[in-house]
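note to self: dont lose this again. the chain is below, predicted strucutre after it. 84 aa total, dont forget to put it in the shared folder this time
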Amino acid sequence: MPTILLKAKDFATEITIYNARENKMLSENQISNEHITNNKAVRETLISRGITPENVKPEEDIKKVERKLTSEKKKTLNSKDSLK
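---
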């Protein structure tokens, strides 16, 4: 997941934690509603700044996975010779 979206989710979670403590929320329902509200607010902020989460392209993590798969494939093909 792109860093901007990870940070946004972290931010919404931190707001929830802060508000749950400040407002002495004890029930799961209260905290869940708070978290949903905070996620919506952070999402609206992103969108208002021109960042639509669904349109954010994945970062290099996918490229790392592709390189790893390519490397493993090469190793597998090379190990075929050692089986003889």
